[in-house]
Design a protein that fits this description.
The chain is mainly beta. Helix content is about 0%, strand content about 45%. The chain starts with 6 loop residues before the first strand and ends in an 18-residue tail after the last strand.
Amino acid sequence: MKTISRYIMTLALLLTAVGGAWATDPVDGTIAWSAGNEASATVSASIMDAISSTGVTTGSGLDVSTGVYFNTGMVKYQPATANAGNVSGVMIEYTIEAVDGYKFKPTGVDYAAVKDGTDNASYSWSYTIDGVESAITDVSMNDVLRSSGSNSATAQLMHSESITADGCSVFTLRFYISNCSNTKKICIGNITISGSVSAAEAPIEVTTNAASAQDLFTEAWFNMPTFDVDVNYELVRDMQDEANPVAFSGLPSSGNIIVKKGDGGTYQPAEALTIQLIDPLAAAEAQNIIAADGITIKVLVGAENEKGAIDYDQENPITLEAFLADMKPGYYWIKAESTDENSPYDGTVYSSEFTVVEKYDLTVKPANDFSKGKIDKVVVGTEEITPDATTGEAAKTGIAPDTEVKIKAKKGYIIEKVEAKKTSTPN
């Protein structure tokens, strides 16, 4: 993909309204369960059209009955297992679901609570916003009225809790009943959840110059709505940009890398080789991005086909590390591509194609002073090399394996001995 710009934007461009979560003014209302276990609640007429459903579920670990306390109808809950804690088996959950296109924003809850029996009972409460639960709050039993009314001077029947939360599609209020034993129960009723509903903000349509929905782009535009807007954009470097391309460096200009087989049986370059992937727009100290996050380097291995052309295997590449560890003779092509959605780069970049060839060096020299100047020529393959007249030495680099090397004596001399051995490596 070629672009006319040094940078491209991703489809993650987002637009949001400023100065409020909703595009319409909120409307206040309440959702109430008078007894506490009705299949559906009573919804204020002001918000009725924006609420699709209400309901209540009771955990399987609760024994449920009803009663009237202080002229208030209530539901009595007792866990089958004492000290059950904040678990789903002892949870009562009230659910409010908004109509598609609307959001419900809770602001508070009012409810009646009574402890039936002694103080050996407690409960806690929480809420969820689209499935995410708030912190669970333990209720002080000193504030909860006994069924006998004996603590009415310090405790109350009704309780109010404020809720600060964003608008949501599904809101739930939860009570957890615990620490009950024998005939001791927690009674809850007259539950009213307050809040507001608003039409969800209509999405702002953004148009781009992408060729398809899957492509990135260089331009995006939209028509300004009747509210303040924030625009969030995300850019990446186009690795193939013609003006400032990301490119491989460190490969020989000749297209060939000369390697020699070492004592361990692996092939290494005859001269030090440093392959880099250069981003010309980065700071000087950070231009080599070959190990950057989100970029994968693959080395493609080629083979000559029946027509004499080189085909590269895209399906079975080797890693750059494996290639550098053992640079076997053959045809190669290096490929860099962005493979991480969080990569700051986009696109695929190829190096020039190159060949790794196995070649070695040759040095021919006299064993003693008498032999100097007595060799007429050294022939390497078809190339003739004339020894130095003073030292009697001849040298040749870059010789392919199995190339014939021949030494010819000058007229009037015969060769007594020729010894060929591996060049010793200096310590």
